[in-house]
């Protein structure tokens, strides 16, 4: 304020004195830059861009089929002391909606239904779960889908983690390097 | 330090708090103002979200009746939750998932159960809140840095309030003798405006800056995994409590109205303004609404198989600290007392935006005047002395 009254000498410092308090308008570039990402995310959560960023196709689990997708094609996200998590979405086949009681996901084959892993939440057309990824997971690990029927039956299938989430595999390799 | 140079220092501090970031502060104030009344703006713009009553005699449907109407209209659609926004002029919103996996919000007439419309692709409410709250910076690992950027503004805002009152000597006199001079040029007008709106906004600026600073603290606590919540973590329903059916068909669940009736019977005075359907076979019906203390919600988890309330979080369950921390968000957003409070918040939000602008205008005009004066003096005195500078006397 006060010293601004002194006429500055060089053109650069004149420019600086004239515009220095308007440079913060450039902060507007931040939301402008993130806007495409914001709308892409909004569309994803509305389900307008499919089940997830990486569709893993339909997997036969016993008599039922389930479509699985990796929500985001990226490394697992940290959640403090709870560790790292990877979000997956799933959809049940239309004919099995009323037969399947619950769906679970786990790294490694579950020994029993009680240890089937993390349970999916949400309507059968679009269920979601957060799979814990221990940083010591082996690169050749498999993720197991367990479907539990209302009649007490249980069916399982697996896919290699490398196929389910290449980004997780890359992240695990990096963890091993540390 | 003399009294005069002290107040000059405060004045300098007051100027510098917002000046270098005035545009950022302005946009945050304007988007915050819009966010407060975003629901009302959508109500005005989109007839689908209005609860139009078909004829005077029609009564509001219960949540189960609305669910039944939705299932009848769209048999394949799954309903995730129903919610009655604050204000009976709003349609009930239903979060649904269609068979193709799309998951929009539907606006449902509370008298007929008719689906009036689907949420448009551009969600104005969510967008203004995201722009205001975290500058659209995505949350990837804990709180977004945009959230920090915006919530940090609470501190200079609080400091602006304090230094403004220190600089404005005997500001309380402004309450009795409001001054707003129109005929003395723009500088005088904006100066008067800045001070007048400032003193009438003391309470509001204090509320917004303190609650804004709370958002900063909340992020710091959250990112360091420190929780002050006493809200119970609800375990999934025990395996033995979820029936197995010989037919292989889903087990019967109690109706939403039955769950509401049970909850209201056991918790007198419980308002139910939203109902969330069980997320899977092992989860509860979750319902709740505002309590007698309107800044907080009371929620109940009902087991849909045996009708037991397995968890609840009521006003009286909160710790003293939670009364403070949980009040922060509604105090910031003004969404705890219907339209009247929102309009008050929006009005003062607009005034606060104008204070940022008027502060900038005062500064530029004063600097321009001071520069012109200095140049004149410089010409007269032929650079024998350094030009005098503006002081707080010219505020």
UniProtKB/TrEMBL annotation, chain A:
Membrane-spanning parts: 21-39
Taxonomic placement: Bacteria, Pseudomonadati, Pseudomonadota, Gammaproteobacteria, Pseudomonadales
InterPro entries cross-referenced by the UniProt entry: UCP029505
Alphabetical keyword list: Membrane, Transmembrane, Transmembrane helix
Species assigned in the record: Pseudomonas alkylphenolica
This protein's name: Thiamine pyrophosphate-binding protein
UniProtKB/TrEMBL annotation, chain B:
Organism: Pseudomonas alkylphenolica
Bilayer-crossing regions: 12-37, 145-168, 199-221, 343-363
Keyword Phosphoprotein recorded: no
Full protein name: Peptidase
Keyword Membrane set for record: yes
Biased composition (Polar residues): 384-395
Keywords carried by this UniProt record: Membrane, Transmembrane, Transmembrane helix
InterPro entries found in the cross-reference section: PepSY-ass_TM
Region annotation Disordered: where it falls in the sequence: 375-395
Pfam family, one: PepSY_TM
